[in-house]
Amino acid sequence: MLTAFRNIKEEKMTLIRFRASPEQDVDLSRTYDAVVVGSGAAGGMAAHVLTSQGMQVLLLEAGKKIPIEQELRSMQWPYDHPRRGDAPPGYHAIRINEYNIRKPPYAKGSAFKHVFSYVGGWGGADYVKNILVDEKDHPFTGTKYAWVRARLLGGKTNIWGRLALRLSDYDFKGKTHDGYGEDWPISYADIEPYYDKVDLYLGISGHKENLPHLPDSLFQRPNKLTASEVKLRKSLATMGRTLTPYRAGVTTDGVKNKYRSKCFGRGACDRRPGGCDIHAAFDSPTGLIYPAMDTGNLTLRTNSIAHEVLVDPNTGKARGVSFVDSVNHKTYEAKAKVVIVAASTLESARLLLLSKSRQHPNGIGNSSGHVGHNFCEHVMGPGVTGLVKDMVGAPPTLDDGKAGGFYVPRFRNLQDKQPGFIRGYGFEGSSGFSLFPRSAWDTPGFGGQFKKSVREHAGAFISMGGFGEVLARYENYMDLDPEVKDSWGIPVLRFHYEFSDNEKKMCEDMATAGKEMFEAAGVEVVGVDKNIRTEGWSIHELGTARMGNDPKTSVLNQFQQSHDVKNLFVVDGSSHVSASCQNPTWTIMALAWRSCEHLADEFKRGNL
Amino acid sequence: MKISRRKMIQAAAATAAAVSLPALAKAPSPNPKPLFFTPAEFALVDEMSDMIIPTDQQSAGARAAGVATFIDARLAESFEKDQPERWRAGIKAVEALSREMHGKTFMASTPEQRLALLTRIAAAESDPKGDVEKFFKEIKSGTIRAYYTSKIGIHDDQQYKGNVIQPGDYAGYDAT
Description:
The complex is a heterodimer. Chain A is of the alpha/beta class. Chain A contains 13 helices and 18 strands. The interface between A and B is large, with 65 and 43 residues.
């Protein structure tokens, strides 16, 4: 009781929240320097960089602006919530068997009032019910896909997993390395200064490892490891592999930003689908957008669903964006000298394809026919769970006061050459005590023995799951459904996508290698999951408007500028040429920073 | 929490009427009016949950943690009608088995008889067949979910150390 009281006092002393600057009135009669579509990691970064260069920017967000702290309630104990985190009756999260057995649209004919992606089924659906999109309003068609979307200011950055990794030339020059696919039109040296800028502006925690395939960031203090993780780290080192504390897009030492607190290791960060109500974890509104509004150069309009990039009939250049107000269903036009699309990999492709005109009959920026194609992401599912015997019966310790557990970087197809597959995968994992003793679900029996066993084993498990590179293939693509429309009458995406043999072979190896690594560390393997999760599960969708030097086989140049329309930029994950196996958010922001700096220079020179 | 609630009930009972005191003292859980279950069903769920997670030296059990009350409230507002129906059918199947095994209802049975019944339906946990075996899985997972999200489960039993501010160094070990 005393402890709880002290904590509340400390919070009041340190967690002072600032309101964002008053929003500027949206003036649709005026022509802005730039209009940005989307306010997530990419759109937020575009707003930050362009406004800091003095450009007048209008930011359109399809979703609403909600008091996010009231949604997330990160510090709330389960028993202080009337349904222990569950959403009210009538809310349904799509289950894995529904994804695999049924065909999209998954909410079609559903008796539930609201239907969410699988993320709503993690512990704490009530905390994300106003963040995730309702699949009833946002259908899609085609092949099965677990599409996770968040429509609100900041998009998915409000609930992202926070693993913040750099890519390397093993990724940017993947074709040079193994002959598959295309190299990126940039190398690590081009993007490195921008990774540094993102690190310093937003804060990242981690531990230096000096790995060529996973370059270090400019880290703030890292998460600590558990005793089990130290044991595995030592064992992996003898195999030439690495276990490193979760590299988190979380400021642990603080950043110069009045909207964000540093991480106090308060813990239980993994008990629901992301979210940090003290904004120590990066999110686009507090990290990028509110500071951009403080420059006086940013105008924000939420509830604005962009459905067409407008084209000047004389020049063929972009002249603005047409959008539907999600509340009143009226259509408006926003005029701008430069259009920046940052609506997320799949929504950006959708917007380009929707933007058909006389000059751009296949959709704007799509003379190559590559928009929607070369889709890639991360494949996941296989993983391993182990029991660390010397931790059985250990007294409880604070093991989850951090943004994440650990990361095992890629170790395949670097110096070696695997017979079954190309490219690689990494593992994300965690161990030790957590708010809920998950092993209770698998502990047999009942009574005193059951209860004692759950208690004694609560901190003794360690588990990790793989995230593997899905090869970018032209045959994996999305187009517009000719018939199905969303609740605002906008044609929806149709998926044509499935994993290839390379992903399947890689997943077999994940399970085998994971088991071997645990066994080598003396960890008793109690579970090996070999099942591949539904396409989309990683929420790392990439490709669909890739960069490249050749306008015939790519959509954007190295500055994420359309080959066809010089005042059109697409600055999100859709520009990525390959998926790597490293999580994309930090790369999305570093690339957007680089491109927008170039954009601002060109704008000032009158070249756009 | 547990103590204060009991005290409150005792105080209320004492002031209300002396005759009701023995009845309340015997009452399985401080929930006189279940929302979904009948009083008899509630008593069965309350008892069985407390057999699944009983009181031991470390912490109080499912009854004190209000497990049956939480399950009852969730079922009362359930949007999916098959879930409350499954519970009701399961309880019926338990009562049928109890009469078959011992010639009386579950709650009228002796503690040894109840244990024999629970042991029997728990034996098929890894591959349950029929309503009664499936019911064990249902009530066990309901009990786990409610107990380990309760104050007693989190603080007394698990002695969870997290969700506190760490003003200085983070707990744990350095990656060296």
